[in-house]
């Protein structure tokens, strides 16, 4: 979808009621527009280029190329501009640092670096550079957690991407019970928090995942959040209940240490009592060893 004119939207409160493209390739404004209950419409000038509709807004997918439209949607989290202020200013500087594909979303005390990196090395280098830029920016002093939400062009499954993409979406949408639950679910999709064998110590390989989950909890701690630990069926019932409780407690303590309100978090070890797959094989055991996050009403 290409636009080189104006984008018209009727806005009521915080909700976008409609979005209409005014103008086209010839620069003539379209007559179609929507008015809100307060009267009037709002037009925003868009640079020439190609856009797609993500369900709530138009998102840039590429520059205008005569006769050729890019129909492949890009990551919404990577494409939506950063918030105004220091985050937007830092994002504008990323191309000068060599990372034109990198974006930034922030809602204190959390910041998420997003984008689609060409390879794993570029992703790691970009995240390190972006992290340093946020840490060195005086205006970002309220940010205490910086999360990796960078995806890979070559990723074949979600777990290969940075775990912070759902957190970036949460920053944009706001922390309702539903958006918080969705953020936890999408962050955990295809991923698992790994622990050292028979211990309640999180593996270093799960650090970025735990940080992303902590970011969700920081934005959602007006709600009650249960951290549920689950094991497979190997070992005694008593042992499995104990280790699952210890691991849930470890996640809770980590989140509290990062600033999540302790009163918002409860930890519960379920042991082997709630398997997702009752089979007795390695595939089922791997599926049943998990952490679950459940968001309930406001506290």
From TrEMBL:
Xref: CDD domains: OmpA_C-like
Subcellular location: Cell outer membrane
Pfam families, per database record: OmpA (PF00691)
InterPro entries according to UniProt: Bact_OuterMem_StrucFunc, OMP_bac, OmpA-like, OMPA-like_CS, OmpA-like_sf
GO cellular component, one term: cell outer membrane
Protein name: Uncharacterized protein
UniProt organism field: Hyphomonas pacifica
Keywords: Cell outer membrane, Membrane
SUPFAM superfamilies tied to this protein: OmpA-like
